[in-house]
Amino acid sequence: MKIAFVPSTNLQRAAAFTFENMRDYYAHFAPDWDAAKVLAVTVNLMNYDILLGDDTVGVIRLQFEENNCILRDLQVIPSAQNKGIGRAAIKETERLALEAKASSLTLRVFKISPAVSLYKSAGFVIESEDDRFFNMTKPINR
After folding, report:
1. What are phi and psi of 41, to 5 degrees?
2. What is the mean pLDDT of residues 70-96?
3. Close Cβ partners of 60 (under 8 Å, ≥ 6 residues apart)
4. Rounded CA separation 8/18 (Å)
5. What is the distance between the alpha carbons of residues 134 and 19, in angstroms, rounded to a whole number?
6. Domain containing residue 103
7. Residue 26 in contact with residue 33, Cβ under 8 Å?
8. Could you give the CA distance from residue 133 to residue 12 in angstroms, rounded to a whole number?
């Protein structure tokens, strides 16, 4: 099935994807978060739906600062995980970053997230860390 990326038209649905996928992390680290708070902090980002065939299965959120593209969020619903969608989303993020003339990609991920291995295998390296997060970066090849 074909994977596609389109600008999000339903930001509430995108916020719900994030909240549902991150529910356990929010419960542990930010118990006052809900889908409305996710929407509030993501509404001004570049939001893209991830489509698998005709179904919306996730979201990518980007922010650009100077020569850097920040991957603020990459979420794939559980039933669509482990099918190459996350890797395809990272490649699309790189394409969008190149298009915007960014020279690097950065992200922040919970240390306990299974996504850490995906990011490492995609070429991201840990630049710094704190008690909860890895801050990762990847240069963009022009």
Report:
1. -90, -5
2. 93
3. 5, 47, 48, 50, 71, 73, 74, 89, 92, 93
4. 13
5. 20
6. 3-139
7. yes
8. 26
pLDDT at 43: 86
Task: Give alpha helix (H) positions in the chain.
Answer: 11-29, 35-42, 85-99, 115-121
How many domains does one find in the chain?
A: 1
Q: Give mean pLDDT, residues 32-37.
A: 78
Distance CA 83, CA 15 (A): 22
Pick from 58, 68, 72: nearest CA to 13: 58
Distance CA 108, CA 99 (A): 22
Cα 33 from Cα 23, distance rounded (Å): 9
- Whether residue 131 is predicted with pLDDT greater than 80 in this model: the reply is yes
pTM of the model: 0.88
> What CATH number corresponds to the domain at position 111?
3.40.630.30
